Structure prediction request, 564 residues.
Amino acid sequence: MEGLSNFLAASNAVLWAEPVLITLLLTGVLFTIWSGFAQYRALTHGVSVVRGKFDHEDDPGAISHFQALSAALSATVGLGNIGGVALAIALGGPGAVFWMWVVGLIGMAIKITEVTLSMLYRNTDDPDNPHGGPMWVISKGLPGIAPKLAGVGKTIGVIFCLTLLISTATGGNMFQAWNVGEITHAYFGVPSIVTGIVLAVIVGAVIIGGIKRIGRVAGTLVPFMVALYLIAGIYVLVVNYDKIPEMFALIVKGAISPQNATGAFIGGTVGYAFLIGMKRALFSNEAGQGSSPIAHSAARTKEPVREGIVAGLEPFIDTIVVCTFTALIILSTGVWNRDATAVLDVEPNITKLADGSWQVETVNAPESDELPIGESVYLIVEADPNENTGNNLHKLNGTVIAAEDGTKQIQWSPLVTSGGPAMTDLGVYPNYVGATMTAKAFDSVQPGLGMWLVTLASWLFAISTMISWSYYGEQGMVYLAGEKSVLPYKLVFCGLIILATFGLIETDTDLDNMTGVGTGVMLFANVPIMWIMGYQAMRAYKAYIARLKGGEFDAEAAEVNAGK
Prediction:
């Protein structure tokens, strides 16, 4: 496991280097300005389209605008909103939320662009199973620009599909299953592997029915689960209403100045808050990944731009609304900078290992109901300067284990640092990773609320995300190997759900690294496609808006509404 963690960490360092983030920001700014702030059209015209104002049963495609949006949202509004936001705050502090907002806003323009492109180049020869996505955009579109580059277009399409499958396996599958297994075990003692098996059966039963069944399930599940989560979130915020202005100020302050260590939070630099906020927002709303265009390509419409505008609603709903709710719940309840659960009786001895790392001896676990066997915990220690926190604090991770005499002990992981770690604080903190932290925030307001609400929401969000991402990966396999590859792919997808609950992920850093790789590789493949082909989306968008302003679609809307 340590070797895998090191590999993922090294990969993240490349995939999420500063130039990559700046490029993505510039991409969003470019299409925002080029389109004349298309975000406005998404929030106005896009809402009308989703309401069915322009739906025609005889238009090409398999599912309605609402079902397409729901299918795409079921992939984005998931555990990234519950666990991902908690992860952003745990690692990057409140300032990370500000950068999530920024990505959410510019992500609306990115989504409009990439979905419009996919709609322009989608294949609807089989009305019940349309095909679309960046792989089709580049393989069909590039030869139109430069016929001699047809082979290059196909190669880029293959590369995109390979990155799509990596992201499907990690963020779209294993991240979801692990989070559900973790929170179900934490609250109900159900072994994670049992959760994985149940999830695999449920997801398999849905995805076997193809995009139409996925669209129907998503169209029912997404509105219900979002409404349930927001209602409970409103209750928590009403209880803590007096802290909300302070939390907004904390978010803005954390985005422009370093954040000091406090309680369980070990501090964060402005740059790290920016990095973590960007990663978590992109993982949550998928802007620039090129994934949701695959779902939107199944929409029933003869106007490609129309579905692109609908897609612009995704980052707004996902990041600006749902993620902000989660962030305010976590910040206002104080669970992110909580006090230690217990304190070690004695300071443990520290030994330098042959590889240069430091090993803290196994010690007796302090008495606490929050430190059951198997619980992941950490101490805060001083060591080398930490470039992520702006200080010299580090987390020393450990696990509560059963000793031979029946008592509980804490076994610590080695810490890599040039100098020996110093323990100035013997407080033990349970490692609330992902959705578990959000659940604890709900519990702090109403005991048991997090236990039932967040566990239920985690199951619903994870299932909805996995069924949509399974379809994304399926379309990648169709492009790579044809329809015959779909059934074996679905079996592997369900197998990965079970594999994820075997204990591959242990800490918030492991979780961040795994999902970061999945998101990062897709950005490397999809953003160049947008830069090469984006002018076609903007040309089509401007032409559509001119027709909209000219009243060309008024008669169409009246005809549809008259028939209802």
Notes: The chain has a mean pLDDT of 87. The longest strand covers residues 391-402.
